[in-house]
Amino acid sequence: MKWIEIQEIVYCLIDKYPDQDPKALLFTDLMNMVCSLEEFDDDPEKCGERILEAIQSLWIEEAD
Hints:
Layout: H1 6-16, H2 27-35, H3 49-63
Helix pairs in contact: 1-3
């Protein structure tokens, strides 16, 4: 899974962290969580604030 696969990342995060409130996450924590996903195999250096914002926004949307 790569950084551009936002929806897949969010679904994996929801599965792995079902009790996590995405609104309460710092971007550094979110990045670490994504990098820890078993399916994730992209370079952490390719991640930027826009990607993390997109992941967090979709996660918040899915959680509501």
